[in-house]
Every structure is written in C-alpha cells, then in structure tokens.
Amino acid sequence: MALHGRDIISIRDLSREEIEEFLAASRKMIPYAEGTKVAHPLADKIVAMAFFEPSTRTRLSFEAAVQRLGGTCITIADASVTSMRKGESLHDTIRMLSSYADAIVIRHPNEGSARLAARASERPVINAGDGAGQHPTQTLLDLATMQEAFETLSGLKVVLLGDLKYGRTVHSLAHALTLFGSELILCAPPTLGLPEATRTRLEQMGARLVEEPNLERAVHDADVLYVTRIQKERFGDEAEYRKVAGSYRVDAALLRAAKPRLAVMHPLPRAGEIAPEVDETPHATYFRQAFLAVPVRMALLDAILGKKGA
Ligand code: NCD
Predict the structure, then answer these.
(1) Which pTM was predicted?
(2) Catalytic: 86?
(3) How far apart are CA 102 and CA 282, in angstroms?
(4) Which CATH architecture has domain 11-134+293-305?
(5) Tens of pLDDT along 217-240?
(6) pLDDT tens digit sequence for 86-111
C-alpha cells in the first residue's frame, strides 16, 4: 500500500481504493490485535503520542497498537506538564519530537493544528483529532465496523445523529461514506447542523443528504445509527450548550421500530445519548467499534512505518 511514510491529516488524503485496500489489511490484523498471533514489524520504532486534549480510547488504542506490533511509545498525555506551559510553540514541540520518534500521533483542540504539525515534523504525522476539524483514523475504524456488520460499505443508509456542527468524527465519516455511495440522514438539533462548508463539499461530491430532525423517522429503515455526543468543550457560551443538552436519547423503545439489523454506533465517550439498556440489545455495536480501533490503528502504523508497508 502506498501509505508508507505518509501523513494522515484528513480523510480526504485517502482515495476510495486506498481505503478499501486498507480495510482488507485491517481485517488481517484482528488476530494480532487479540494477541492470538504475534508479529513485530515495528520492533525498532518509536511512536510519539502528542495529546493536548483529553482522550481515552484514541490514545490507548494507538499505544496498544504500537506495542502489539513490537514498537515503543513516548507520550504526552497532559500538555500542562510540558514546556508548552513555558510558552513553547506547537511548531517547536513537534519539530523536536520528530527527532525523537519515527512518527507522531497528535490530538489538539485547534482545527488545522495537525496540518501545522505535519509541516513542522520531519516524520509522518497522524491526526487523532484537531478541534472540530477531522478525525480520520476514527473514520477508518468506523468503516471497518460497518464493513464487518454488513459485509459491504456500498449503499448503506446511515443516520448521523447529534452534534454535526462540532463533531469531527462526523466530518470525516460523512466524506468517506459519500465515497462509498451511502445515503446520509442528518438528524441534529437546529443549531448543530453540518457546517455550510462541509455540506457544500459533500454536495460537490454528489452526496445523498437528507435532513430528518425527527429521530423516530430518521431511524426507520436505516442500516446504521451513528450517535455522537454534544461537543460541550467547543461551545463558546455555556448557555448555548444548555439549550441543546439532553435533546436526544437512543433507548430500547426507539429501537423497537428499527430494522432488526440496525447497528447503533458511537465513537464514545457517551454522555447520556445512549441509554445503558441499549447495550443489551443486538443493535449495540459501539464496544466492538472501540475494539476495532486496535487492529485498524495497527494496520495504519504498519502501512506507514512497517518494513515494506502492509
Ligand atoms: C471522539 C473525539 O474525540 O472526537 N472520541 C473518540 O476519539 N473516540 C468523540 C467525542 O469526543 O465525542
């Protein structure tokens, strides 16, 4: 695969063919992620985790991926203990880190920060979330989850529920699903719809977009219900957040009218949008989705850093 040595900043950096090839490589990584098979293609590699925003799954699944592949991590998990507290710029921090590691995984609250980091770095940079911008590796694992559930990605009917304005997972996923010809049903509180620029870009790609603010109607006939958390930390004004907090919730009653194979997904963390009772239904796919983060990120690191690529 031609990902060797490349930055992954936006899902737009990958073509449909590259994504398909990549998903095939990810499937082969599952037994290695489970530990039933062992291979160490990153044995001599160091990967830096530069996390300037809270994270559980993304950072730990990247760290697990590096270690399953025999590599080592150096980690910034809390920016307040770095020299950025002394006024060091992101540019300088990344430039220096790229001389300590073979690749850098970055998460940062500012949109565009991963692109800036890639310019500062002498080594490949992977964007693990830049503000309300993009989260391309989450999209790869979301696609892997859908492909596992439906054996195909073509022509799925996918509801994107929640904070479509600030949700970076949705911005990346909507692009990728459009490459695969999905129909996207947008179900958001009135103030949290897709940003105009994102919508325009999707429309230029020929996206099939339907707005359906009513959750019952949106779910009817859908294959995937992709739930997101309201991104509280992106709101300038707490009062604006309070107006939309708790405005939607997926529960067992809602799912009774859904297709039997509807997959309920969520990048997690959830903050009340999915009732715990949903965990016990066959629709709950979010924990499998969280596990698939490991083989997908293993395949990505192997492709970028491995000896011959995946
Ligand atoms: C998401 C993120 O950070 O954008 N989480 C994740 O990476 N799994 C979603 C969120 O925080 O709501």
Answers:
(1) 0.97
(2) yes
(3) 41
(4) 3-Layer(aba) Sandwich (3.40)
(5) 999 999 999 999 999 999 999 999
(6) 889 999 999 999 999 999 999 999 99
